[in-house]
Prior knowledge:
Layout: H1 4-9, H2 12-72, H3 75-89, H4 95-107, H5 113-123, H6 126-151, H7 157-185
Helix pairs in contact: 2-5, 2-6, 2-7, 3-4, 4-6, 5-6, 6-7
Amino acid sequence: xxxxxxxxxxxxxxxxxxxxxxxxxxxxxxxxxxxxxxxxxxxxxxxxxxxxxxxxxxxxxxxxxxxxxxxxxxxxxxxxxxxxxxxxxxxxxxxxxxxxxxxxxxxxxxxxxxxxxxxxxxxxxxxxxxxxxxxxxxxxxxxxxxxxxxxxxxxxxxxxxxxxxxxxxxxxxxxxxxxxxxxxxxxxx
Length: 189
């Protein structure tokens, strides 16, 4: 009986049916996997689009708050306004009085960074959240430099130099956050 098996395998129609059956089985598996992926894409595609839009809005709000804070804490702009206000009030406009008044103004600047940054921290991904944390920390360093200047009214230009350095770091961290957010939003993931 075992002699008939090789005879059967010599028949080209039998061999062709085995090959056709194997190919059909593999093709069915591939078709199933493709259909499953297509179904998953059809389900998750709209969810991903909504999430991407929410991330875009969160990144934009945080970035707007960062730029607003950067502009409101610009040393040259604050000292110009302080000098103008002191002149209008008939007060002295020497370097020390303008510096002290400017630091007082800077300590009063508030921002929405904590609120808008919290949404970015939650949305992520890690690269964007990390850049947001760095920008938020840089903004806190600017506020700390302003408090330091206000708490040391007899200090000279060194407090202004330290403040300007902290402000420059904030500018650089805003650009780093912008780059990370743009990279995320323009990726296909």
